[in-house]
Amino acid sequence: MALPSVSTQIQLVARPQGWPVDGDFRMTTVELAEPGPGQVRVVNEYISVDPYMRGRMNDVKSYVPPFALGETMTGGAVGRVVASTVDALKVGDVVVHQLGWRDVAQGDAAQFRVVPEVAGVPVSANLGVLGMTALTAYVGLLEVAQMVPGDTVFVSGAAGAVGSMVGQIARLKGAARVIGSAGSDAKVALLTGRYGFDTAFNYKSGPVTDQLAAAAPDGIDVYFDNVGGDHLEAAIATLNDGGRAALCGAIAQYNSTDAPVGPRNMANIVGRGLMLKGFIVGTYLQHYPAFAAEMAGWLAAGEVVFDETVVDGIEHAVDAFGSLMRGANTGKMLVQIARPS
Amino acid sequence: MALPSVSTQIQLVARPQGWPVDGDFRMTTVELAEPGPGQVRVVNEYISVDPYMRGRMNDVKSYVPPFALGETMTGGAVGRVVASTVDALKVGDVVVHQLGWRDVAQGDAAQFRVVPEVAGVPVSANLGVLGMTALTAYVGLLEVAQMVPGDTVFVSGAAGAVGSMVGQIARLKGAARVIGSAGSDAKVALLTGRYGFDTAFNYKSGPVTDQLAAAAPDGIDVYFDNVGGDHLEAAIATLNDGGRAALCGAIAQYNSTDAPVGPRNMANIVGRGLMLKGFIVGTYLQHYPAFAAEMAGWLAAGEVVFDETVVDGIEHAVDAFGSLMRGANTGKMLVQIARPS
What we know:
2 copies of one chain form a homodimer. Chain A has 9 helices and 15 strands. Chain A has about 350 residues and is an alpha/beta fold. Chain A is globular and about 65 Å long.
């Protein structure tokens, strides 16, 4: 492999009003200096596009600061070291890092973490089933919503990268019943087939509250929210006494320019002793070792399946993000940058 | 004291549409039989009127079932045994029970709990500072919202029976700053004076979000919600990363006939990792002994003050409830039935 000295990068140049458009981004080419002391150069193989990035395109106070205008966007990526001035990182090592949205990344070695290469597991899995995506599902379900065996669990956006993991982890952890919602009949079939959900519904086929009530005649104990909006309201209507909801995101509202509407049934939260708890995975990283060990076992035993939707080329990263926002992906949405040598 | 054999009782005869009106209730007189085996007769001294009772007047599924139409309403009360057929309850004992909204109560002894008479503490305190009211404040703040020393705490409806306890317990438990809201300048003065809040504001004087931001320039860590509506939205806007809200009630919306509006800033819950948790005191009764011991110590040391607003006579119970709904009370709202003999 030649050592590339040019990096093609995607920068945010305008804050999207509603749905992101091409004009909100630009592609630029950066000439890289030789790696300095303590630095490495990495050729990215895959970059991750995730729903939370939409929030970072806005200029609002948040746990995670907004993307800066005119700077290259960041995000999860996995690649291979092509040049290194430090002993801990060797040429050929596979590393994960946050310098996504570029084909070649260069920086201080501390920004990169070496991951093992496991036979039969693609390196892209480090962004999904072995990465932040599945960790999000794991901690949201078990730490935030405190699922216990026997719970009935409802997951929205269940065919997505996080949702499909939530459903499978819930089953493996002893949920009595796992219910999912998704935006097409094909995804619904995937949920009850490949992903092993007990039942699922297409939220575009009727009111969410009615469909959820039919799917959960005895109510739900845990809700994992990827969607917000009417899904959250339906869950609040359906949660049993003492029920818990982990709020992971609200993709239904990310691109809305209207003032969002809050759930109109907040009174249920008092009367039924419900808990709604938001989270971002970054504050639960201490659970990574336990998660990684358990997930590796499930993968080795064939008890967890995962899907990827792959778009080719850094020049299509913005398209990939738009497809993700429209729900065109099944499982983890990735941009493939370089093919493994 | 003569042994009364007639009981005057308040019954719900129609479900209120919006604000309760006199026609939703009737006063009736019941002739009591002699207490049967295992029964006692109690002359009530005080009955409690509480905001949660408004919810029970509606016919909606809830943790606590609705009041039945045509039956006598129930609720906290304290009285004195005037006749007993059981050894455990003696004539003259002070008892607390749930057979409120009547001047004389009769029933199985198991429904009545004897409370000690403490010099300097009125029997009415068993409904307030030593009863469910202050237990609500205690468990909501410490168990539900998990307040820890150093937290900045915001309480709405802070001059009410629960709110005034929340503020004082927060201070005694080491809150860095205690902020309250109330509906009049006189109540605001009471908060920062008698009740020891660090700062307070009149929610009728301007937008809650603006006033709360001014009162809490470094944000809040805990919110105790007695009000709902724009107070809850303001708290969600102001809670710091990892902040917790205990949802105790939403008096602002109890009498509304419009569809309630939910908080429009639910996205903050995800981004800042906030927790909203509803509760009713009935599911936290296991904390009563710890609460009672701690509160008795605070009272004996003069570290907690409490107020009562007392309306005289069972025939004015509905008026008392209406006054409570309009915020005319300071501290615990009570209906005095019989004067201690």
